[in-house]
Amino acid sequence: MNKYLKEYKWSNIAAMLRNNKSKPAECHESANGKLVLISGATSGIGYYTALEYASHGADLICINRNREKSKSLKAEISQKYGVACDYYIADYTHLSDVIRIGKTLSELDREIDVLIHNAGVFLTKKTITKDGYEQVYQVNFLSSFILTYMLMDKLKTQNQARIIYVNSEGHRFSLAGAQLDDPLWERHLYTGLKSYGVAKTAQLLSLIPFSENFKDSNVTINAIHPGDVKTNMGENNGKIYKFFKHLFINTLAKSPKLSAIALYYLGVSQSVKTVTGKFFNFTTEEIPAPHALDAEASRELWEKIVSSEVFRDI
Ligand SMILES: NC(=O)c1ccc[n+]([C@@H]2O[C@H](COP(=O)([O-])OP(=O)(O)OC[C@H]3O[C@@H](n4cnc5c(N)ncnc54)[C@H](OP(=O)(O)O)[C@@H]3O)[C@@H](O)[C@H]2O)c1
Questions:
Q1: Is 66 in the pocket of ligand 1 (CB under 6 A)?
Q2: Which portions of the chain are predicted below pLDDT 50?
Q3: Pairing outcome for strands 219-225 and 161-166
Q4: Which end of the chain has less Cβ packing within 10 Å, N or C?
Q5: Residue 108: per-residue pLDDT
Q6: Residues 9-44: tens digit of each pLDDT
Q7: pTM of the model
C-alpha cells in the first residue's frame, strides 16, 4: 500500500484542476537593471521567458547547450530590446559542464536578481549518463540542484535574489515519491511519465532544505508549473510518442508565452517578494502531491546528493 495515499485531499486535487484552467497574473513592474539567469533559453518556455524579461529591461545570462541557437538568441534580444544578453554553454548530461558554470557564476561580480532553472527533458527510454545518473533526473533536477548549491553563498550576500524552478504538475506521476532506493531503475519499470515525475518530485523535495538554508537571508526559492504548453518537450522521442503528442497533447496545449508571463510575475512582482518554499500553478500557490512534501525523504535526498562523489569537486 502506497504510504502517501491516505494523505491525499480531494480539495487539493480540485484546486489543481481549477488552477489548470486559470490564466497567470501579470506583473507590470519594470526589470530595468536586474540580472536574470535562465537555463534552456533556446526553446519553448525558456525562450519566451528570456524575451519577456528583456522586454521589461532586464539583462540576461542564458545557460544553454547549443552554441548556434545561443548566438542567434543573443543577436535577437540585443537587437530587439537593447539589453545585455550573454550566454554560457553547458550540456546538463555532463556534470563537469554544470560544475564549471557553477564556479564561473559564483565568481560573477554582479548580483543575480532572478535565477530560473528551466532546462529539461522528457524521455520514454531509460538512458544512463556518463556520470552514472538516469538522464531525466540529471538534466531536470540534479544539475539545477548543483547550481543552486554552488551559488548559495553568493546569493546570501546579495540584497535579494529569487530562485525559480520550472517544475511540473507531472511530479504527481511518481506516486511513490522520489524513488531514492532505485535511482537507476533496476527494480522498477521505467516509463517516461514516471521518470519525469521522479525528477520533478526530487526538485520539489529539495525546496524544503534549500528554503531552510536561505531562512535568514533575502533569497527566496519557489517552483512553478508553467502550464501545459506547446514546446519542443518530448520531440526527441520515437515516432509513436510523437504521434500521440501531436495528436492529443499539442492540440490542447496553450502558448508558452503564458508561462513567460507567469515566470516574470514570480521573478519580479512585489506581491510574492517574500514567499519562499512554495509551488505555484502559473501564479497561484498550490499544494503539491503528498510525496513532494515528505520532510524525511527531503533530508535523505539532500544527504545522498551532498555526500555523493560528484560533490567532492564542489
Ligand atoms: N511544455 C510543457 O507543457 C511543460 C509543462 C510543465 C513543465 N515543463 C517544464 O518546462 C521546462 C522547459 O521545457 P519546454 O517545455 O520549454 O521544452 P523545450 O522546448 O524542449 O525546451 C527545453 C530547453 O532545455 C534545454 N535542454 C534540454 N536538454 C538539455 C541538456 N542536456 N543540457 C542543457 N539544456 C538542455 C533545451 O535545449 P535545446 O534548445 O538545445 O534543445 C531547451 O532550451 C522543462 O523543465 C519542462 O519540464 C514544461
A1: yes
A2: none
A3: parallel
A4: N
A5: 97
A6: 999 999 999 999 999 999 999 999 999 999 999 999
A7: 0.98
Q: Where are the domains of the chain?
A: 5-313
229 lines ligand 1 (CB under 6 A): yes
Give pLDDT, residue 74: 98
- Whether residue 84 contacts residue 54, with contact meaning beta carbons closer than 8 Å, is answered with no
Residue of 47, 135, 123 whose CA lies nearest to 91:
135
Residue 220, ligand 1, Cβ within 6 A? no
Mean pLDDT across the chain: 97
Residues 6+ apart with CB under 8 A from 303: none
* Tally of CA atoms within 13 A in the half-sphere of 205 that contains its CB: 31
Determine the distance separating the centroid of ligand 1 and the alpha carbon of 62, expressed in angstroms.
13
Q: Whose CA is nearest to atom 42 of ligand 1?
A: 40
Top CATH class of 5-313 equals: alpha beta
Q: Is 140 in the pocket of ligand 1 (CB under 6 A)?
A: yes
Q: Whose CA is nearest to atom 46 of ligand 1?
A: 120
- Closest C-alpha residue for ligand 1 atom 6: 168
For atom 26 of ligand 1, the residue with the nearest CA is 119
**Rounded Cα gap, residues 151 and 255, in angstroms:** 32
pLDDT number for residue 312: 87
| Residues in contact with 175: Cβ distance below 8 Å, sequence separation at least 6, in sequence order | 2, 4, 197, 289, 291
The reported pLDDT for the residue numbered 175 is 94
Distance 7 CA to ligand 1 centre (A): 31
Instruction: Specify the pLDDT at position 159.
Output: 95
Closest C-alpha among 183, 225, 229 to residue 200: 225
Q: Does 143 sit in the ligand 1 pocket, CB within 6 Å?
A: no
